[in-house]
Amino acid sequence: MTIAVIGTGYVGLVSAACFAELGHTVWGIDIDATKVAMLKTGKSPIFEPGLEEILQKNLANGRLKFTTDLLEALPNVSIIFSAVATPPGEGYKADLRAVFVVAETVAKNAEKPVLFVNKSTVPVGTGKQCEERINTILAERGKTFRIPVISNPEFLREGMAVSDTMMPDRIVVGLNDSSDENEKLRVPSNNTRDSKLETRDLIEELYRPITRANKPLIFMSRESAEIVKYAANAFLATIISFINMLTELCEKTGGDIRDIATGIGLDNRIGPKFLHAGIGYGGSCFPKDVKALMATAEEYNVPMPIVHATDEVNTYQRGRFIDKILNHLPSASAVAVWGLAFKPKTDDMREAPSIDVIHALVDAGHTVRAYDPVAVERAKPLMPTAGVHYETNAMTAIQGADALILLTEWDEFRGVSLADIKERMNGDLLFDGRNVYEAEEVHKAGLRYVGIGR
Ligand code: NAD
């Protein structure tokens, strides 16, 4: 099957490379010419484990191509995925401008029917709006065919994106049954078998290499699929906020949040995943999707107190950790920061806690020596222009530092000798924003330990 993926960011690029790896012929399309030029040479603009290997392999075997020009791909594709960004807009509503631009561009240029699949995270009702816009344009152009719009939300985790895409827990597809019945898809392909397939069959065919491995492909209404994505992210964010909510009580009473997590996580009805207390969730999805769900709920006048509380706890938790740091630090300290990305195994800096922490440190008159294995270049434009130095090595970052703050739990920080840290540092403060270290061992090495909920 020949498909196109519009938007080659964290989601689109991984999807394009994985669909090619699964045997399809894929066009990756982006308006960013620099990105496309880089991709054509087999270089990934983002850090994602395993991505560059499959990118290069499928460029070489000709199954993966990149272009800035939709028209180059359009005549041959059966399915177009839209995977453009939907960042927070006015009042935290999802900014859908790129989604609509893509839909309208397809409508203005399509000469044959094609299936339009929205992979971006979009508020309920967006698919319907896209379909209306597309079909209005087609009608204005005097075209008699229609372009169905379906929803196929993405659940990949950055840092695990390739394996999550190749082996997802589930694939959710939302399509509108009435339009499905009315509009049998006539696929613009020389492949006669394809031309007989309808929307559902086309999707089943596309994902067959994955469903063959017993991964569920679930069909539901387009509206349900759009809501599922926000529900999943809001629920996961709620678990994080729930465990974080208990950290202050632990600190004030002598409890240890890790024991609470174990104690409740072993209950089969709860489970241990996601019960890791820390400085609150960040990243390109949870903060924006929690807020966007709140905005949608407000639009429909639906109370969502749990979602509001999730967001409030997250803000409070971040502020609480920053206050703790500032209260402990002597004035004009030299502070080493380990980890800038919002989580390990990614260079994504969107809504990373390090941004708030480092700004607060510099505003309070401290200087920062920051290190991250892959995120430094993306971090620089988001950090204060003065007062932050970037190191290329974790150990040089702590040399002579008064304090060390761990913000991202990269594996390389877990195995470091605590005695080595103590020896290199000038001061003795270790702030563990991810509860990676054992307080007792830190104390034994002669350092003071400040964790979360312990
Ligand atoms: P991103 O910013 O990394 O990538 C978006 C890409 O789209 C960019 O390369 C941009 O140049 C391109 N683009 C913008 N307008 C375009 C246009 N008109 N034509 C062609 N290309 C265009 O975004 P992302 O992180 O990949 O997220 C994409 C969507 O997927 C969002 O809705 C996001 O919420 C959702 N999502 C993201 C993740 C994640 O972990 N990043 C996970 C699940 C879902």
Biggest sheet strand line-up: 3-2-1-4-5-6
Distance from N terminus to C terminus (CA atoms, Å) equals: 54 Å
Q: Give the oligomer, counting copies of the same chain as homo and different chains as hetero.
A: single chain
In terms of DSSP E residues, the strand content is: 5-15%
Bound molecules: nicotinamide-adenine-dinucleotide
Q: What is the total tally of β strands?
A: 14
Helicity range: 40-55%
Mean pLDDT comes to: 95
Radius of gyration: 24 Å
Which class do the helix and strand fractions yield? Answer: alpha/beta
Compute the number of helices: 21
- Poorly predicted ranges (pLDDT <50, ≥5 residues)? 178-197
Largest sheet: 6 strands, parallel
- How would the global form be characterised? globular
Characterize the structure shown.
This protein is α/β, with parallel strands linked by helices and 454 residues long. The strands form three sheets. A six-stranded parallel β-sheet has the order 3-2-1-4-5-6, with helices on both faces. Strands 11-10-9-12-13-14 form a six-stranded parallel β-sheet. Strands 7-8 form a two-stranded parallel ribbon. Helix 6 links the parallel strand 5 and strand 6. The protein is globular and about 75 Å long. The protein starts with a strand and ends with a strand.
Key words describing this protein structure:
single chain, alpha/beta, 6-stranded parallel sheet, binds nicotinamide-adenine-dinucleotide
Provide a brief overview of the structure:
The chain has helices at 10-21, 33-40, 51-60, 70-73, 97-109, 126-140, 161-166, 177-182, 192-195, 199-211, 222-245, 247-253, 257-265, 286-299, 305-328, 353-363, 376-379, 394-398, 411-414, 418-424, 439-444, and strands spanning 2-6, 25-29, 64-67, 79-82, 115-118, 149-151, 171-174, 217-220, 334-338, 367-371, 388-390, 403-406, 429-432, 448-450. It is an alpha/beta fold and 454 residues long. Strands 3-2-1-4-5-6 form a 6-stranded parallel β-sheet, sandwiched between helices.
